[in-house]
Amino acid sequence: MRSRIAAAAVALGATTALLAGCTGGSPGGEGAADGPSSANLYLYQAPVQFNPLAPGQGAEQLTMSLVYNGLFNVGPDFEPVPRLAESWDMSEDATTYTFHLRDGLEWSDGEPITAEDVVFTYNLFANPEVASPNAAPFAGVVGFQDVQDGAADTLEGLVAEDDQTVTITLTDPTPGFLALFGSGYGILPEHILGDVDPGEVMQDEFFERPTVSSGPYVMEEFNVDENIVLEANPNYWSEVGIDTLYLQMVTSDVATAQLATGEIDVVQISPQDLETVEGLDGVNVSSAPSPGFLRLLVNFTKFEDERIRQGFLQAIDRQGIIDGILGGHGEVINSTIMTPWALPDDLEPYEYNPDEAQALLEEAGYDFSEELRVSWIPGTADRDAAVQIVLENLKAIGINAVADQIESANQLGMIENAEYDLMISGGGNYTPDPTVSANALLCDSVFPAGGNTSLFCNEDLDQLLDEGAVTADEDERAQIYQDAARLDNQLVPYLWLYVPDTLWATSDRIEGFEPHGDFANGFWNAADWTVTD
Q1: Nearest to 65, CA basis, from 38, 101, 41, 37
Q2: Which residues on neighbouring strands pair with residue 178, listed in sequence order?
Q3: Do 117 and 69 form a contact (C-beta atoms < 8 A)?
Q4: Which top CATH class is 3-213+508-531?
Q5: Distance separating alpha carbons of residues 180 and 97, to the nearest angstrom
Q6: What is the mean pLDDT of the segment spanning 69-94?
Q7: Per-residue pLDDT tens digits for 205-253
Q8: 238 vs 519, residue with greater confidence
């Protein structure tokens, strides 16, 4: 017997824009009865490209969720929600997954979306010539190693059974396989990209402004550092409620101010603005817990001694940041693993202790005179404020910490080339299953091969994570991951700052909104949004 994991799409509206904002030149929504409808959404960073194969920052992921559909997405409850696939099956031994596509799917240019597009896309993710850092979900697919070794061009375990059926066969039981996809891997049009050399596809001009869409919207304009204009996809598999979306690139304070003037419709607000926003007429506030966390990447190639990383962590008043900056809307964590059943109750809390922090650093031979750069992309109020506290805390114990504001376009290059000391990073969808956290920890996931952006490696932790990923028994699996969490907690591969509550403010004209805790997936069901005036 096979277990059915299927689904009815949930009509929960999540308007969202990481801190929505609007600049001049974009009209407000006139309402469906009076003509074309529109809404203004905020992007908290300026996108550079729109490539699912590449490591996208949050604003890029938000935008891509509107123009690319995956087989499924993740809803606010962190459970899979159907998209191009209307249902899927998992074999009892968790080695075979079968996806059933919807009837009559079309790209925005009228070409059919078929199982071959899925196979084409997933083979690109797995292809070593593409060198996608998002290849992790496919590492367990039958034939992956042959593809990596050049013995095969495509994954043996990835098959289009017919136009609407895709099967994925894994080498080992993987009960957390769906969670590896996070909010879904956008499917790419084979009829557009099929002739592009895999070694060149990452740089293809298609990703500068995707002209063909499988998502609810088609990108009409990309005005760099200003805005993105999206029009409803006439061939989308469901009715799209708003005709035009304007994604605006402004700072969080401007976005919040424009919420007050009615120039913006949805804002992911900073906790610092919560009291002000709650007092605005015609504005609704809601929240949801994040499935990820804010962290400081700590460059493992420079700080291999775990005592140094432990010392850094204890030097930071994390609860003070939550209380003072987030207004209590967050919590401290002490492991990269976030799934509740995978966490033991005996993790080291690393409470704020400057004296202990200094002692650990001295014991490890840390050079206090050496400059320690704390890098971050400015423009998000709570992160900007958190960095200032981190700097003050580090300086208080004699560390020569300096602020290093960087451009979003430079962040990934700095990580790949290990050209940073500490770097603010956030997000992730780690709550659904601990399998997902492995991509941030495994040795073979060191960026750009995967999402291990601290460039961390520990073989003992690798062994536990690999064992947990292929264990089908729930109790045994929980014990393995709890052991992994204990080791992760000891090694401190990241400086875990906090798990924030994601706070949303929406204008009264937006209907169908429900908050999503994953700020990078805030547009998860944009097709269901409507506006009224």
Answers
A1: 41
A2: none
A3: no
A4: alpha beta
A5: 13
A6: 93
A7: 999 999 999 999 999 999 999 999 999 999 999 999 999 999 999 888 8
A8: 238
Q: Is the distance from CB of 338 to CB of 517 less than 8 angstroms? A: no
Q: Please tell me the predicted confidence (pLDDT) of residue 3.
A: 32
Q: What is the full DSSP assignment across 331-381?
A: E----S---GGG--S--------HHHHHHHHHHTT--TTSEEEEEE----H
Q: Take residue 379 and report the two structure tokens written for it.
A: 């423009």
Give residue for tokens 């960087």: 406
Quote the CA–CA distance of 259 and 265 in Å, as a whole number. Answer: 7
Full-model pTM:
0.74
Domain span(s) for CATH 3.90.76.10 in the chain: 3-213+508-531
Q: What average pLDDT is seen over the chain?
A: 90
Q: Which amino acid would we find at residue 247?
A: L
Considering the domain 294-501, what is its CATH architecture? Roll (3.10)
pLDDT (tens digit per residue) in 343-368: 999 999 999 999 999 999 999 999 99
Per-residue pLDDT at 88 exceeds 90:
yes
Tens digits of per-residue pLDDT, 245-280? 999 998 888 888 898 899 999 888 888 788 889 999
Q: Could you tell me where in the chain the CATH 3.10.105.10 domains are found? A: 294-501
Number of Cβ within 10 Å of residue 475's Cβ equals 9
Rounded distance between C-alpha atoms, residue 452 and residue 444, angstroms? 8
Sign of CA dihedral 290, 78, 143, 467: positive
Closest CA to 510 of 528, 488, 484: 528
Short-list 23, 28, 42, 55, CA closest to 379: 42
Of 92, 113, 81, give the one whose Cα is nearest residue 6: 81
Q: Which amino acid is at 526?
A: A
Crossing angle for the helix pair 306-314 and 474-491, nearest 10 degrees?
80
Which pair of tokens denotes residue 224?
Answer: 């760099």
Distances (CA, A) of 57 to 308, 427, 517: 28, 9, 17
Q: Which residues contact 486 (CB under 8 A, 6 or more apart)?
A: 344, 346, 347
From the CB of residue 358, how many other CB atoms can be counted at a distance below 10 Å? Answer: 19
Backbone angles phi, psi at 313, to 5 degrees: -65, -45
- Cβ–Cβ under 8 Å, residues 179 and 432: yes
**Do residues 73 and 83 lie in contact, with contact meaning Cβ atoms separated by under 8 Å?**
yes
Going 192 to 193 to 197 to 203, the CA torsion angle's sign is positive
Give residue-wise pLDDT tens across range 271-327.
878 888 999 999 999 888 899 999 999 999 999 999 999 999 999 999 999 999 998
